[in-house]
Design a protein that fits this description.
single chain, alpha/beta, TIM Barrel, three-stranded parallel β-sheet, 11 helices
Length: 271
Amino acid sequence: MWANPDWRGGLYPPHGAGLEEYARVFSAVEGNTTFYSGAPRPETVAAWARQVPPDFRFCFKLPATLTHERRLVGIDADLEAFLAALEPLHDRLGPLMIQLPRDFGRDELPRLEALLACWPAGIPCAVEVRHGDFFHKGVAERDLNRMLITYGVDRVMLDVRPLFATPAGEHPGLRQAQREKPKCPLHVLSTASRPLVRFIGHLDTAINEHYFEPWIAQLLLWISQGKTPFLFVHTPDNRQAPQLARRLHERLALPSLPAFPGEVQASLFGS
């Protein structure tokens, strides 16, 4: 997401909250809008393309109507229309995410394979599974991982350990996030060339940094191997997500992110 008014005065200037400002700092975005609303209008996609630099990447989710309601069955025409709608973005597409329902298990893997077998070669893809079958290192998980490796598809790594590190207590945002996010084990593996990590943080900075520590060596290893990892950062209510993303990026000892426009403006007019 990028249209978050809570980020004004930090990531965004006080009166701005748009994609162009977001892309001045970050190089990729996780697009949830398509999951809930389906394909965007052509003029919307064309506007997005104009607002970001060539190296920016959009990582949209397939619509829930295809993954959750129809469970990948009979979706060929709608998938083609969805991908066609994103065509103006061309090489600005990062991995498109196939987020599967929590009850999508081993018996339905042939449906996923049928989709991956006809997936367009020029569009990266990543799969997020949530069924317990795929987290016990048994036959189901081996079948899934072999399939992803065969088709050159990444497996999304959802790290919810920080989020569930403590009881929610009286904080409504933490309670809601713990209700909404699946408490899946974390299995760290790269099945293709664009490892994708979704790091779901806590309200406590120390907890976040503790659980992020092992990721530092792993992300740098993938980079050294010529892979292009994607790291998306959330917090329970997402108000502090940009700040957390910046802190975690600093831990990687990579070139610094640009200053947040809202913070720069505040410093110009501060005392």
